[in-house]
Design brief:
Elements (H helix, E strand, L loop, with lengths): L4 E6 L4 E3 L14 E4 L8 E4 L10 E7 L2 E4 L17 E2 L6 E2 L3 E10 L7 E4 L3 E12 L2 E11 L5 E10 L5 E11 L1 H42 L1
Length: about 220
Amino acid sequence: MLFTRGIWAKKNGEIVYHNGQSNIADHFKKRTKMLGDLNDGHCSLEIDDIKSFDNGPFCFHVQKENINYRFTNSCVFIILKAAPEKPVMTPVPAEVDAGSVLSASCSVTHTCQSHSPVFSWNVQNLTSEVTETPRGQGVWETTSSITFVVAAEDGVKSLTCTAVFWRHKQQASTIKLNVKGSLTYKLKSSLPATISVLTVVLIAIVVAAVFIYRKRYSNFKMTH
């Protein structure tokens, strides 16, 4: 026999989620939904646009035809925070070579899998990958991993990862890159172009020399 309805409510009886919208308390209407399939054991509650009074306790009960199963001994609370978590970035070497390819990762924990944070970086990525890992107790960890080319300038440079959360809240973390060897990199980068130019010039000189030689040889034969 399948479950017919899942309901979330406060201990005072105020309905937080019900599949009949008219039963939900006014200040929760259009802000709550239940994730997953009830008959697969998924009864997670999602609350959007969190308010100061959304701390609970929230209790779940389920209906199977005319039978109610209440879980009033397993009610949950929500710990409200003023801002989301700051991203954590992977360490980088003490010094990096200008023009080298570097890998970096940035991770952040959150409590809303249906609205995972979106990452942005202050460098142009060569490759980019985002992974999602459950950490238990309704917490997920989202990680952004990139590779990029280090700037071709010596000095201390900033690498910044920004996590943009649902409803435009965001947090950023920055690490410093101590870049060395830009002159060597620029010389290596310009070497193929320099060789190409020298080759063209050398060919032009050879062609001109052959032309001058033939002209002089022709004039010599005419005078003798």
